[in-house]
Design goal:
Largest sheet: 9 strands, mixed
Mean pLDDT: 92
Bound molecules: P-hydroxybenzoic acid
Number of strands: 16
Helix content: 25-40%
Low-confidence stretches: 1-32
Strand content: 15-25%
Length: 401
């Protein structure tokens, strides 16, 4: 049983509480003085999917974050860390309530979440209204670091534009001319497909048809049959988590992987590769990570993650780990005073991470600037082929900061 399954549920709505180093801070909560208040725990509110098609992804983000904190002796900015978790179930309709509860009743000092772009939109709106500190450890929704950017909203993952636009040139350079796209019909799917098309069409490629099904459906058969009929040079896909496992297996089972190569955003094969088995062999994707990045920070991270969890790390674990690293970087400069928001944000802006993914800085909209890698599935791993585009900066369209 993992740590996530064991903590007590405190309400019907799926809140889970767990804490580290809490007892020492009890008196300080009642009679705070500046010095003692800083020894009080920092409350981290995880709002992540712990169930459903993205359940494993949320769990890995959580575990990556906790690994970093453990490596710092259970502290961030010199203060013990207390966690509260909510399973957002990747349901946008519950996002506002869940977020309000973490910010309001739970009084979390910082919210870390989430995976799903539609849920993240709801979180971003509440974060803006309440001026809460939010670190997005996955969801790529462009608006979060675009028109809805704000000093209190940060991302340690990617924008939907950032990871897919570089694939356009990669596929055009590979001589692929006619491509079919396929995804779930929701913000992340639409934005990733649009970004891919932007890059592909600018390099002379043609998208012959866009296929989509509602999130999180996995009845792919009719769409796979349509691909077989259209016979494009290649397919570009965005699916993730459980849905990606099924799509890749169904695609291979239909015999298409031999005749119509499958490309995609790296989420198609990250965190899913073991379950996909041989069906994933040869799939090429772009992402801000590859399993075998030959970097000391990556090797140390993968070793530590395996030691702590018994599992192979992936991009989701990296993004969670880096969310804690970003927070630590900011808190170090304000001596753990998470309430000193302006100073904290100024410190966070200066953070340069030696991430397992490679060097990482933040742009003016608080989105990572990072390498995007071309990978291919070989031997059950997402192996690096080359840097598809170095230091990719999201254009932060519409951000006025
Ligand atoms: C998203 O909804 O933004 C999303 C979800 C899962 C991923 C990547 C992006 O793996």
């Amino acid at each position: 049983m993992t740590r996530l399954q064991s903590p007590e549920f405190t309400s019907r709505r799926g809140f889970i509480k767990a804490s580290a180093g809490l007892l020492a801070g009890t008196a300080a909560f009642r009679f705070p003085t500046p010095a003692i208040a800083q020894a009080a725990p920092i409350k981290v509110g995880f709002m992540l999917p712990y169930s459903g098609t993205f359940g494993k992804l949320g769990q890995f983000i959580d575990e990556g974050f906790r690994l970093y904190v453990d490596q710092k002796g259970g502290k961030l900015g010199g203060r013990p860390v207390q966690y509260v978790q909510v399973d957002d179930e990747s349901k946008p309709e519950n996002a506002t309530d869940n977020m309000n509860r973490l910010v309001g009743r739970e009084k979390a000092d910082v919210i870390v979440g989430t995976v799903h772009s539609g849920v993240a939109m709801g979180m971003v709106k509440v974060a803006r209204d309440t001026n809460s500190l939010l670190i997005i450890p996955n969801a790529g929704v462009n608006e979060a670091t675009g028109p809805l950017c704000a000093p209190n909203i940060w991302r340690t993952s990617f924008s939907n534009w950032q990871v897919c636009q570089p694939m356009g040139k990669v596929m055009a350079d590979a001589g692929l001319k006619n491509v079919v796209t396929i995804t779930w019909r929701y913000a992340a799917g639409e934005q990733m497909i649009n970004a891919f098309k932007e890059g592909f069409q600018a390099n002379g490629g043609k998208v012959v048809e866009d296929l989509a099904l509602p999130f999180p459906e996995v009845e792919f058969q009719a769409l796979i049959t349509r691909i077989a009929t259209l016979k494009p040079d290649a397919v570009f896909a965005f699916f993730a988590g459980g849905g990606a496992v099924k799509f890749v297996r169904d695609y291979a089972a239909a015999g298409l992987s031999k005749s119509i190569p499958l490309y995609g955003a790296g989420f198609l094969t990250d965190g899913t590769i073991q379950a996909q088995g041989d069906a994933a062999n040869g799939i090429r994707t772009t992402l801000h990570y590859a399993d075998n990045l030959d970097l000391p920070a990556n090797k140390a991270f993968l070793d530590a993650f395996l030691k702590k969890t018994g599992k192979d790390g992936d991009i989701y674990a990296v993004q969670g780990y880096d969310a804690a690293a970003l927070l630590e970087g900011g808190l170090a400069g304000v001596k753990g005073d998470i309430a000193a928001r302006n100073a904290l944000v100024a410190e966070m802006r200066k953070v340069k991470l030696d991430s397992p993914r490679g060097p990482m800085t933040f742009n003016k909209a608080n989105n990572p600037v990072q390498n995007v890698y071309l990978r291919e599935v070989r031997n059950g791993r997402n192996e690096l082929i080359k840097i598809a585009q170095a230091n990719v900066d999201d254009p932060a369209r519409g951000c006025r900061l």
